[in-house]
Known about the structure:
Elements: E1 19-27, E2 34-42, H1 49-58, E3 62-63, E4 77-82, E5 89-94, E6 97-103, H2 106-115, E7 117-123, H3 134-138, E8 144-153
Parallel strand pairs: 2-7, 4-8
Antiparallel strand pairs: 1-2, 3-8, 4-5, 5-6, 7-8
Amino acid sequence: MSDPTSRPSGPAALHPRAVAMGTWIGESPVDGSDVAHHVLYPAGDGVAPELMAVQARFMGLGPAAQSRLPSVDPDLARIVIAGRGAAMTSQLWLGEVLLAQVPILVETAQVATGAGWTIFSVGVDPWDGQPATLDEWLAPAARFYLGRMTVGVAT
Length: 155
């Protein structure tokens, strides 16, 4: 079994259609303040949990059960907010590759861009994307990796 804190030498081979992303405003695990959150998760059962874990470790995320919040190198991965109003999206870039994008609420985008960072998580299990099931899905901390990721605005 691999060390859940070791960093792989390369990214996982995830296809953009195999993953989904969600956003919300929630509590900071560090100080309890309101912060933007992003989560990447398998879009279905076709992605092995181990592959999601490899991707998370490559980005520099740490196990959610640990107390520290690592910072992700923006050359490896970053969030970019693009568009305006109802057409606004949040994009996950791995280097120069767009892996995922999702519509984002203006309020969430403002919190993320105002801070210049987001709490970014990778879940290894599929999620239905419904806010009502989020807390239950997030409950097994051993199934998540997280860190602090840079947020920028598309020019």
